[in-house]
Design goal:
single chain, 180 residues, mainly alpha, 11 helices, 78% helix, disordered N terminus
Length: 180
């Protein structure tokens, strides 16, 4: 029985539903990928949905295909970095994150991904620098400020951590206590 894809389903899948609906997104995006196997946006969305369902090797396969199609697409490198981070391959993850930042230094998410990998490798000062760059690129993101506050806390920079937490609380009061 062929899968029918309506406009509403497509929009739901591309908005990255909660993990419990990620398997539905995988099904829809696999169909879209079959229709247009060289669409890097579909390949990236499919890979993210597969990561959400725990299918990390499969996600990596689709991301590498997207990279072969366009090796200058920063989103692919951010997703490759995230995938390798989840796979526990931190050196490879950092390599991809650095490439994403190199390709798109104006994209906050590239810096966030790099910061998260650096934090995992206990390079806290470099992680804080990358996260601070992300905050400067997207100053309205309470989540980025909370991440930066946590890095500052881990480094013992309590005044800076408090300042970031206060800024985050002003932007999204309910997010700070849940994340700090």
């Amino acid at each position: 029985m062929p899968l029918s894809v309506d406009r509403t389903s497509l929009l739901v899948s591309l908005d990255f539903p909660p993990p419990k609906r990620a398997s539905e997104a995988v099904t829809i995006l696999e169909t879209l990928s079959a229709w247009n196997p060289k669409n890097i946006e579909v390949l990236n969305n499919l890979a993210v949905a597969k990561m959400r369902t725990g299918q990390l090797p499969e996600a990596r396969k689709f991301l590498l295909r997207a990279q072969r199609i366009n090796d200058r697409h920063s989103v692919t490198y951010v997703n490759l970095a995230s995938c390798h981070l989840k796979l526990g391959q931190l050196d490879k993850a950092l390599e991809y994150a650095k490439q994403a930042v190199s390709l798109a230094p104006e994209v906050a998410q590239a810096h966030v991904t790099k910061a998260r990998i650096l934090a995992k490798t206990r390079h806290l000062a470099e992680a804080a620098e990358s996260m601070a760059t992300a905050v400067s690129l997207d100053p309205r993101s309470a989540a980025f400020r909370v991440d930066l506050a946590n890095l500052y806390l881990a480094m013992g920079w309590f005044h800076d951590a408090l300042r970031q937490a206060e800024e985050a609380a002003q932007q999204a009061p309910t997010s700070v206590s849940a994340h700090l």
